[in-house]
Specification:
The protein is α+β, with helices and mostly antiparallel strands. Among the domains are: 153 residues, OB fold (Dihydrolipoamide Acetyltransferase, E2P) (Beta Barrel), CATH 2.40.50; 36 residues. The strands form two sheets. A five-stranded mixed beta barrel has the order 4-5-6-8-7. It is extended and about 105 Å long. InterPro entries: NA-bd_OB-fold (IPR012340), RFA2-like (IPR040260), Stn1_N (IPR018856). Its main location: nucleus.
Amino acid sequence: MTSVGQTPEIYPQYCFHLSPTIQKWCHLRASDILALSAPPEFEGQDLFFYINHPIKWVRVSGIVVAIDEFGAWRAYTIDDSSGVTIECHIPAPKKPDGINPATEPTNQQQNQPNAGLVDADIDIGDIIDVKGGIKVFRDMRHIKAEKIVHLRSTEQEVQFWEKLIKLRKEILDQPWVLDKRVVRKCRKEAEGIDASSRTRKDKQDRHDRGKSSTTVAAAVSGEGRCGGKSRTDDETGTAAEKPKARVTGLERKPKRVKRPVSITGKYDALGL
């Protein structure tokens, strides 16, 4: 157990599959997301930590207070009454070239490319529930949305906050603790997988090298048979000696048959 005042241990990445948060939509407030730690050794992995719980996927809910577009993205600014706001990003709908403002498509038409991501048009004042991953752009954290739905009743909002409180109480407020034997087992398993991968790669490399050597040897041998000259021809100008014929005892000439032999029988010439 972690003693009072001691910083909880952040376990190696090969232990993360045992975490109760790594593959979970974690209900968090915007202030919680901005307060997550980001150790240097995990930089660039979009992986953050609540105490020592690895967090990758989050879920936030709040009122939309601003909508902006920049480049290929549309940003919804969400205020969840935690004291800060957070942006949620989705791909911006593509507009036709040479669009006439008087005939500009409706929000519903613009959102058609995100039909599977957003349940309906989003406007300022809407209360939405956002699922997504934490990203960093220009040192600012935001959520890249995977799913957005509207909360259309107070009951739905209450259910969301109940799940948030339950997650904090049962999991997040206590450090994640693993037995040392479990950590050693995870390390051995990871090392075994790495060794197995290296062995397969080495075998494949040896196979490729052997195949390449065989191809080169075959090409050289073919060149010698087809177009190359023997060492005797090149150096002495004389042809190589022919191998002597093997004596089998069958070299005697056959006896002449006095009686003519029939050439017709069971098979004729076309049947052979």
